[in-house]
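Long-time lurker, finally posting.

We've been working with Calcium voltage-gated channel auxiliary subunit alpha2delta 2 (Saimiri boliviensis boliviensis) and I want a structural starting point before designing mutants. I don't trust myself to interpret raw outputs, so I'm hoping someone here can both generate the structure tokens and explain anything notable. Sequence follows.
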Amino acid sequence: MQHWARRLEQEVDGVMRIFGGVQQLREIYKDNRNLFEVQENEPQKLVEKVAGDIESLLDRKVQALKRLADAAENFQKAHRWQDNIKEEDILYYDAKADAELDDPESEDVERGSKASTLRLDFIEDPNFKNKVNYSYTAVQIPTDIYKGSTVILNELNWTEALENVFMENRRQDPTLLWQVFGSATGVTRYYPATPWRAPKKIDLYDVRRRPWYIQGASSPKDMVIIVDVSGSVSGLTLKLMKTSVCEMLDTLSDDDYVNVASFNEKAQPVSCFTHLVQANVRNKKVFKEAVQGMVAKGTTGYKAGFEYAFDQLQNSNITRANCNKMIMMFTDGGEDRVQDVFEKYNWPNRTVRVFTFSVGQHNYDVTPLQWMACANKGYYFEIPSIGAIRINTQEYLDVLGRPMVLAGKEAKQVQWTNVYEDALGLGLVVTGTLPVFNLTQDGPGEKKNQLILGVMGIDVALNDIKRLTPNYTLGANGYVFAIDLNGYVLLHPNLKPQTTNFREPVTLDFLDAELEDENKEEIRRSMIDGNKGHKQIRTLVKSLDERYIDEVIRNYTWVPIRSTNYSLGLVLPPYSTFYLQANLSDQILQVKYFEFLLPSSFESEGHVFIAPREYCKDLNASDNNTEFLKNFIELMEKVTPDSKQCNNFLLHNLILDTGITQQLVERVWRDQDLNTYSLLAVFAATDGGITRVFPNKAAEDWTENPEPFNASFYRRSLDNHGYVFKPPHQDTLLRPLELENDTVGILVSTAVELSLGRRTLRPAVVGVKLDLEAWAEKFKVLASNRTHQDQPQKCGPSGHCEMDCEVNNEDLLCVLIDDGGFLVLSNQNHQWDQVGRFFSEVDANLMLALYNNSFYTRKESYDYQAACAPQPPGNLGAAPRGVFVPTIADFLNLAWWTSAAAWSLFQQLLYGLIYHSWFQADAAEAEGSPETRESSCVMKQTQYYFGSVNASYNAIIDCGNCSRLFHAQRLTNTNLLFVVAEKPLCSQCEAGRLLQKETHCPADGPEQCELVQRPRYRRGPHICFDYNATEDTSDCGRGASFPPSLGVLVSLQLLLLLGLPPRPQPQVQVHASRRL
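Top reply, 14 upvotes:
Generated this for you. Predicted structure of Calcium voltage-gated channel auxiliary subunit alpha2delta 2:
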């Protein structure tokens, strides 16, 4: 077998030496040494420059934010409240007006209130990816808030003055994107004006629930939610509680920590989390699913619930926010005030705020609930029906904002958010936020107001930050990344969410963006701590097509981005320390090389694909490379490579590489007969963006990415020494291989290493494309006991001669498998159409043996950015099936009609008709997502790579009455494993199958209950405002019970019976002190 292995190695090496042209391309570069310079990437200088540029970019936004916040506070302070203000007194652009005018059933059309709404003209602006109007602001008001209320009209009145400040900001910084004021009343005023992106279903957008608003409106929170599940809490009330808890969880961000427990006589966590956990997306999902399983039974025991909550908050042995501490209790009522518990745990300092929520329609005395909240610096709320849930589960933020307002200028600090999806279509953004305070006083000599007016925000698109990073000088495998205090990436080439939900931030941890190891944990910790550093590490990287794992060396360099919570890192392979910069000052040479880009030269010089880069501002992009090349040529006929509107570095390098690869055709490829060695094509790809495929007709079957930096073969060849085989992915085998003139091939590529003095770099990759069928036949000959001239001689198992892979293919299985475990070649004709498959799908028994004998190592990881098809709705969850349905007897009972149960059910039905699903069965759908839209999910990925065994190896597969001998050996200077094995004789050996295919994780990845026991290192914001001695806690909520009128009940029933679509009643609920 070793003899066969040497023959295979020699054949591959010979073909690559003759046709690959590695040595010849080196000589071509040296012959053209006067046409380029070798530049150095100095990591420390690079990363400090980029960090400084990002700091300058964000600082300009910070100055604009401060101007806006100061102006807003002054405008509101000067504003005179008007009790008799009317809708027609206010003129503004309602961002949802156009959509509502198109809807004849719209509430506002029926009200006839459009007289106060401006009609604007818009122009397309590529910076906003939207149509905008720079002369006006737009206003968005949540659907469940009545636009004509006195509070809202006064809010619209004083915020109108912000329009001029928005415009002045843009005059000073034309790069500004959305400028937004999110009011604590729910009003959003943003600039420039653009129509609201109306969803297909009801619009549930409320600025107060946006991640950026929540972060700016309060300091981090440690929250324990306790839910009364005693026997009196049943039916509608229990469902209201479940929905309320889910809505409450949505007011928390990744800076917050939370736990949820249910209680009756005893308290217990609703999920597997036994302590406070970070309120990230995955943990909140666990809570939301667990809450749905709560069952009402037993008697109410407030003491058990509160003792459990205080114990949670006093646990100092865990990671937590260590700022605002609060308990949120949901109940239907009770008489116990549990004063002894508060005396023991919370008095006299009252460091824990208590918020109480009376849920459902009932006749209990709510005084004890009010007392609990008022005695512990909290607030009391009532949630009588589904319509009150959203507003009353977010109003607590007003209370938490009091210490911030009272702290004054000390609390006026800009914070930068996690990455999230912009609701107006900008894509992924980060937002700078600054709270806006109420500076008014209730009267002469009175204490100053302690209400937060809202949050000012300015968006920065991630693409704008990416433009500040080096382009193409870092090579195919070098990159810049940035993380925040949570370790989440702000920039990273692997930050590619397949689907985004603008209600949640995009939170990809650095250790999930890459393959985690101890070195990266140290780097991440150092970056979060705001340190500088440099470290060279040996690590694993995943290939671009996510089929392979390579062990590589990388240099990490990092610095903090001053004045922000971000840290910037640079990753460079050693071979990317230097790069080529073309110097084509000779215009005659420019023209000569440019001609080799013209399609008229392809027949003689081979087909050229050019990387779709931004060579010039006026170059029209296209996904079709032929069309892109045409656009490029047309533009180059109008401008020169030295034009100011073009990127001279990219253009000069592209033209240089065009000439250099043409010389390779001239010196090597043109004079060779590819058919002699059964080659379908030869090719070269370069850092400059050229991929030349010869002959021209081979381009018809070329499926690799025209951008070399995004081509898996290119990046893997740079990271691996020797020849890298890449079999076709199984999905590309669309035609049977036995068809005549089949052109399915196997790529073999290798990097061209260039040494110029003491500087080494890899500016190109060359390779060949093997004809699969012809090389499968050649493989059998090379793994046999004959030369090309000898006639094959059959040798049986009992003979004295040696069996081989050609004549004994009925007894022996001979295969070449690549380093990812994929079949490359086989001596079995029936397996040719399985080339490119994971070998376990071909021979599970043999692949398992190779893995068990350390020829392969397995690496499992999770893709947290995957998209999955929507699951069909089941019979469980928050659907109408689980709601109480009255019987015929109930309908005939007059007492039932006037009961609280009937009123609550009617409210449910009313909102159900609007929301299409009771109790937020699918909030994403309500936000406007199509029913067939894919949703985010977690996929488990498994890759295999070569293990520690390098020598040849013999082993026996023993399984019961069967045994199977196999021999395996690595082929030198390739990524191939040569395996010869006896064919399986019985089916018992088919036990066990290794899986490589990506699989969906129904539990959203690794077990969350285990992960929270070993939380990753993070740091919260360095500021905390949770206490102020001058805080006035007297405003702590009060009951507001409004009995239903008989007329309303009858009207509702008639609407339901007639099938008419009812309209929601105005839902504005504002604190008494919310008068602005």
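Before you design anything, note these points.
The longest strand covers residues 759-771.
The chain is about 30% helix and 20% strand.
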